[in-house]
Amino acid sequence: MEEGEQVFNIRRQYEAFMDTFKTITLIIPHDQAGGEREFSVVRGDTTIPLEIEEEIQLEHAMKIVTSLPGELDLEKACEVVDANGIRTDLQVGAVIRTAAFDERYYYEGEDLGVRKVEGGFRFKLWAPTSSAVKLKLISKNGEEAEHDMTREDKGVWTLEIQEDVEGSFYSYLTCINLVWKEALDPYAVAVSFNSRWGVVATELGPPCTSLPPVASPVDAIIYELHVRDFSAGSEGGMKARGRYGAFSERGTKTPGGYSSGVDYLKELGITHVELLPVNDFGGVPDDPSDEEYNWGYNPLFFNVPEGSYSSDPGEPLVRIRELKEVVNNLHDEGIRVIMDVVYNHVFIREESSFEKIVPGYFFRHGENGLPSNGTGVGNDFASERLMARKFIKDSIRFWINEYGFDGFRFDLMGILDVTTMNEVSDLVRDSGLIVIGEGWDLNTPIPQEEKANLRNARSIPDVGQFNDWFRDTVKGSTFNLHDKGFILGHSGLEKQVAQVLSGSVGIQSRDQGIFDGPIQSVNYIESHDNHTLWDKMKACMHESEEQLFKRQSLGTAMVLLSQGIPFIHAGQEFYRTKGGHENSYNAPVRINQLDWTRREEHEKAIAYVRGLIDIRKAHGAFRFPEARLIREHVSVVSAEHQSVVIRYSEVGDYGPWSEMILAFNGGTEPASFALGEGERWRCLAKGDRADADGLFTIEGDQLEVAPLTVSVAVMQSISGKLDE
């Protein structure tokens, strides 16, 4: 049976929709609306009269809202008959978006999809609005067969096949409102080339395991990386260019003999790599040319690895094995892996399995009945609905258990609801995994207080959020190319700079900040989105490159020396450029790939970042997990004249230094600050150098700070106790 083929030729003289379990809405064309208004529901041998509640004139029809004396369900087909005996089938309508529907059909089982059972395989699909469901199987030798499935409780359809179908292709055929549609399994864990078919795959190889978690999210140093960008450039010296396999290579070098690839990541000292989406996505074929590229925010199948990064995308198990090798190889080097997940939307709603299998349920609709578009890509995933929320949690659980991911970054998290994000936090709490997300305030039709966004940070206390206050204060607006922040010479921002350097929690009180704790603040000045900082500066700052280098290094230093979770865009440390492209999501790979020659040219800048990372790791006071510790130990010495001086007092219990002073100079003239007479200070960072063992002992009582740099001075702790 082909997709869209109808049970029979449907010719409805009027239409009837179940909008609640006790409400039926009739749409009657004006040429049919005359005569007696009397309607009943016919279910088998039973006839139930309908009571008319409201009549509404539409342009081409009459809308009549009716009520039932009791509730109907979806288990048996019904018809509506009018006073003239004219019948029409009762279609599933807005009932699917009611709380009663969720309550009646929520399925708690953890066995949706395909499972291997004794003697064969069991298929389970949640499709409560379907009147019939078939499983289509295509064997390895190309033989196709259809099997009727059986409806069970909660709208779950099931079938056991008593034969070995491992590796077979499969899909589902669902009949809804008398129309058949074909869809792949949303719970599929493997697909064929270009996602044409689901693949029965229960033997996925050994699972990965997560590394032991960091003690607190603030102990993480996150490095955002796109799989293809990482190795596509020939100068990186990796053989598996643009593929998963590049993460298995060791000893790779640039043409000048500098480290590249995973060796470079390890040397840099970051703790976590955040991979842009690696689940199956659209926008590129599985065998892309150099002109075909995508960041990956076009999700197709959420539990399947992307095929275009695989050495053999036509063999379903290869991409599974290769993605596991990515995780395992990074784990072998002590680097944890965060997965960028895109549960806020699908690539094309009308073509998605969710919409074909339970039309209208998994996506939000506005008051006009049309799909909402807070994401800007045509659909908003309705995470507040129980089976949508369950899917997200089931998917997260799958990626942890099977692939060993150490955390998750939620794209456009502001589309999702607070309850879902808290349940995700609960899911990962015992394993200590990191959860961060984009908490932007987006126009999606759920109550404001239910949105998982920055405004509601107090409602999702365990979730880190990308801190746009930090970003825009330090560098200037992301959305105004010519807007300038502190590091680009904007004076008057010093007090805000002091706050964002201190975790955005409010140094004196919560009212001064936006977060309850520093674990909620993801501090960054650059990501895959929008212009790189280098490209922004080239457009709005008419200065020498030498001056721009200083500005960017100062910005990166502010990220690494602030309270909260530091986040670095891959290549930021060597002034990454995309040639001025503001939105390179589908630009050719040559625009997006890391330029490893810049890694050669800017080794001194990279060494500086490595030194700053070592300094951050060396002392727990840079990584306070609670706001009370910041308020107890951190104070603002000065915040004026394009400079900010922060002091850490009595912090010897957290690391090798009892006192620390950080002086940030955003101006173009040298500055100096008093350290205090008779105190012996050691300088850890000055100009373009940084070293956790110290650069020199400061003579005198002044801390000198060169233009557009940060200086760090410390006093040795009496105990010398290092925070592990």
TrEMBL record:
Belongs to the glycosyl hydrolase 13 family. NCBIfam families: pulA_typeI (TIGR02104). GO terms for biological process: carbohydrate metabolic process. CDD domains: AmyAc_Pullulanase_LD-like, E_set_Pullulanase. This is Glycosyl hydrolase family 13 catalytic domain-containing protein. Residues 224-616 form the Glycosyl hydrolase family 13 catalytic domain. The lineage of its organism: Bacteria, Bacillati, Bacillota, Bacilli, Bacillales. PANTHER family: GLYCOGEN DEBRANCHING ENZYME (PTHR43002). One of its GO terms (molecular function) is hydrolase activity, hydrolyzing O-glycosyl compounds. SUPFAM superfamilies: (Trans)glycosidases (SSF51445), E set domains (SSF81296).
